[in-house]
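Two proteins follow. First one:
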Amino acid sequence: MFPQLRLRQAADILIVGGVVAYPTESVFGLGCDPMNAAAVARINAIKGRSVNAGFILLASDKTQLAPYLAAGSDIASEVQESWPGPVSWVMPASSQTPPWITGNRDTIAVRVTAHPLAAALCSAFGGAIVSTSANRSGRAAARSVLQVRRRFGSTLDYILPGDTGKEALPSEIRDSRSGAVLRPGCK
C-alpha cells in the first residue's frame, strides 16, 4: 500500500492551503484545495496559466463532487460508467462554486480518478482537489518525481512520490449535456 505518512503529509499541506504534485493515470498533477483562492492563484502563477482557464476537480468518489455541482444535476449513466477512470466531464456548476475554479463559466469539469494514490489523496484530504497537469503552460507534463523536481523546484510545497498510470494522454474531457468530446485523451 502507500506510505501513509507521506499521504497524510500531502493531505495536511492541502488543508493548510499548500500546492502539491501527485501522480495520476497519465501524468503528474498539481493540486490544492479548490476553495482556497490563494492556492489556486499560486497554481496559475506556477504554470503561467490564465485565470479564466478553469480547473478539473478530482475526487475519489462522486459524493466528493456534489458540493460543486448544480442542484438537481443528475450524474448520467454514461458519466457513471466512465468512473472511476480518466474521463473528465463538464457539468453544470453550483452557484456556490468559486469562479476561480470554473473560469467564470456556469460549468465545471469533474472526474473520479482510477489512480489509487490520487484517490487516496482525495480521501485523506476529505474532498475533491484541483487537478491540472504538472507543466508550464504549453509545455509537456511531468511524468516522474524527478521531472517535477527539475521543472518546479521549490515552487511546490510537496511532491507525493508514486508512479503515474500507464495512460499515454491526459484525461479526455467530455460535455455531459451533449456527450461531445472537448479534449481527446485517454479513456
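Second one, unrelated to the first:
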Amino acid sequence: MKTRRTTGNRRKSGRSSSRQHLLELNVRTASIKRQRRGKLSSLLWKVSVVVIVVALAAVAVRLACQKFFFNNSEYSLRHLETNLHGVMTEEELVALTGFTPGSNLFLLDLDQANRKLAALPEVRSVSIERHLPDTLEVGIQRRLPLFILVASGEGESVGSASSEAFVPGKSLLCDRDGMVMQPNRLSDEFLHLPILTGINLSGDTAGKRLEDDRFKSAVMLAEALSELPGESFQIRSIDVSKPYAIIVTDTSNARFTFGTKDVPGQLERLGKLLAHCRESGRKIETANLMIQRNTPVTFFMTPETRGQKINPVPTPGSKEKH
C-alpha cells in the first residue's frame, strides 16, 4: 500500500512541474513581446519626430527662398548680354528660351534652354551664365559652313553657277564635319561658298550629318586647295558624282580633274601649271591632274594667243624637249 501512494504522488508532482514550466514560458514570451512593442513604438516615435522636423525645416527653407530669392525683385533679369554670331536675333533667342526681361534669374531653366539652343544645326556649342544680381550672359559658337549643297540631279544646271544662288530658308549648307544646315537669313560669307554637287541628299535634312566618303574626299581637297594663294585659285564648285575623280571648277571657269589618291602630287602639278600661267599669261580651260606625266591641259584661246605656238607644260616626271 505504501508503494502505490508513492507512485501517485510522483505523478502529481510531475504534472505540477510541467504546468509551472509552461506558465513561466508564457510569462517570458509575453514579456519579450511587450519589450518588442515598446522598442517599435519608441522607434516609430523617433522617426515621426525626425520627419516632422525635416518637413518643418523644408517649409522654412522654402519660405526663406521665396522671400529672399524667388520673389526678390533684386534678382529680376534686367541685362541680357548675348554673343549669337548671326545664328539668331536676340528676339528669337528670347522666344526660344523664355529669357524675358523681368524674369527671376533663379527661376529660369538654364539646362532646358541650353538643350534647345544646342539642338539647332547651326550651333556648335552654347554657354549660359548667371551674373548676379540681374544679368544673364548667353554665348553661341556657330558652325562654319564649308559648302552649299546641291542635289545630284541638279549638278549640271548649277555646277558652273555662282554661289550667290543661296536662298534663305531653302538652301542647304554643311560644315567640314558634314552637319547639314538650312539658315533662315543671308550672310555675306554664304555668297562666296563653293557649291558641292554629286552628293545624294535624299533623306538628308537640316540637323543630319553627311557620312558619304565622297564628301570626306571633297573636304580634304577643299582644305588642301585653300592653302594655295587666293589670287591664283578660288573654288567655285566641286563635283564628286564620279567615284574615281573629283572635278573642281574655279572662279575663271577652269575645270580641274583630281583623283582620289596622291593628292599632294596632284597639288604639286597644279602649282606648276598656275606658275606657268602667271609667267605666260595663259588661262587654263581644263587640266587632268590625275595623269602624272605629260598632264593633259587645254588653254583658253584668245586673238593674241591663237597664232602662238603652244609648248607643253613641264610637269614632275616629264622631260622637257630642247
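SUMMARY FIELD: The mean pLDDT is 82. The first helix runs from residue 2 to 70.
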